[in-house]
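Hey, I was hoping to borrow your eyes for a little while. I've been puzzling over a protein and I'd love to understand its fold better. The fold is given in discrete form, as structure tokens running alongside the sequence. I'd be grateful if you could look everything over and explain what you see. No rush at all, and the record is pasted right below.
>
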Amino acid sequence: MENLQDGVSFVVTVYNKERFLPLVLEALSRQRGDFQREFIFVDDGSTDGSLRILNEATRNWSNVTIISQRNAGPSRAFNRALEEAKFSQVKALDGDDILLPDATIRLRDALIDGCRLAFGHGLTYEEIPGSVDELYCRQDGDDASRPTVVADFLWSSLTMSRMAPSCWLASTSLLRDCGGCDERIFVQDYSLELRMVARTPVAVLERPIYFFQGPVDQHRVSANVRQILFDGNRAMANFFSDHPHLIGRYGWFAARRAAGRAWRWSFRHEGKTIFSADCWRFVQSRLCIGDPVRLISDSCASFGEMVRV
């Protein structure tokens, strides 16, 4: 058993976030709560001024670790940060998302009834007050409502990804038990979500936790819909290959979701017809013909050859 101190390790992965970091870091430094904390930043080969800003803005902070590495993608960047975490909980944060003042303490309080993972939802940048001071004058109030505890959240996650990194807080032991992100997948969000929810009940908070910019910035990974769909199906295929004991319970449901996404994409964007392999895979998934994990894996071909974003 790891000897982890009680507290929160904030893990922030950064790639070319120069224009967002000043506000992101100021909000991060002003998280409310009486708990020990550390800040672990991984600059994943940024070519703008992100690393400079990280160094300058955190110069007077306590318990800061800044790692600079060649670009390897968000999955590897997150796992590199996870290696350094020394506190019992991890609060993940994307380099362009802004935490609400009570985000961390709300999530910590939500870890009830054996939950090792809690998450809330996000608001768009358009809903941010004009300055950090205005943001931190915002009072969330004494919300005594209990989170909703979902014993088997995997059904929901297999329907679609529910958790951007900035919305959740998890126990460090959970993250290490599940091996962190699947480094075979470029984007970390979905592979990590599947791995976590398969191992713990999940506490769901019906409240905002952070602000995000939405899909308006075409330089964001999330703006590349084809890559996101490919990564989602590939993460699902890898997940079941790594967890064969779950195939019997969830396999065909997952295959229908993956093959359906792939067929809709190829029909709408690639002009494929009902005589295509994409459609046949969808039919197989509905009729439970063949191997569900093989169908999920093969469905990735519907999105074409992927190039790293």
